[in-house]
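Researcher: Batch entry, complex prediction.
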Amino acid sequence: MNPGLLIVLSGPAGVGKGSVIKRAKELTDNLYTSVSATSRKPRPGEIDGVHYFFKTRQQFEAMIRENRLVEWVEYCGNYYGTPKEYVTRELEKGRNIILEIEVEGSMKIKEMFRDAVLCFIVPPSFEELERRLRGRKTEDEETIRRRLDRAREEFRYIPKYDYVILNDTVEEAARRFVAIIRAEQMKTFRNLELIERLTNKE
Amino acid sequence: MNPGLLIVLSGPAGVGKGSVIKRAKELTDNLYTSVSATSRKPRPGEIDGVHYFFKTRQQFEAMIRENRLVEWVEYCGNYYGTPKEYVTRELEKGRNIILEIEVEGSMKIKEMFRDAVLCFIVPPSFEELERRLRGRKTEDEETIRRRLDRAREEFRYIPKYDYVILNDTVEEAARRFVAIIRAEQMKTFRNLELIERLTNKE
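Model: Structure tokens for the complex:
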């Protein structure tokens, strides 16, 4: 069995990453979102190992020291990160795993997992991104400006990604994303067993 | 506008390349088969520039000398080849062009067109290929044996291709092929204009 794909998905706040992932999961049967570790307290209904791997600050800091995370951030006083062992184990099971992470983390993933597939979701235009952010009506003007500045920074990383996915509509973007996954699974270097089987015929 | 993709499709005789291409063309609206040049005489109904570019032997040999073919072969006393100018012009129009060619020619294409996408169609197994060849009932035993020997040789080139497409059913293989084309069009290096447009926003 071929190992699963490690798929990194980035894109600015408001571009619709969550909706695209949700729809892509409906369109294909082997697509899983990575479970992060966090030092944040579980909220009602959140299950350990499903929504997050819940850790104490001490446990999380030990994971950082022992290099057991592929990437991590501290955000609003809590740690969030991706356990290396979990990712490796899921890939070995043949599962295609999505990591939805920021640009800096993505670069670290690519160093650690050379065969990771890096995808960046873009809006049709910068103006459209602004419109979507304002449309959410959940952020004040200051926050929106900060998010747009951040988007500009993030866009500079696109050339380091393998694929750029246009999100004009969620349906189209999800289909594009699924096409990338299908294509990547056909890369020759991921099918050496199949090739071996055919070439060793006498 | 982005230039079109140059897609090379190879695979052993009997694997079903023609049927896969035919179905893939129905599934997508920007996919064209390259028109070859030949020194063979036109058959009734064949149109110059549609089925082939018909040339005299002298004209064809001049094209070889002047390096105006991306690849060529002599087969049963006639020349067949792909005119470089034609391919370049079609790609500039934004058309995705399929070249259905043999492994040796594919390697030359990759040297000349660095961004060409090389796909190799494989049967589910060697036995299945043999079964399909016999099923055609158009070749004698000797020809079938020669084709199977040739298939073994061709399989050794697979690692030099970008993608390996399993042809279990024509429908599935065509969908795989179309997924590769969609994915390749999203490669960041093919979308520099879009990225430029987003990053230059102040």
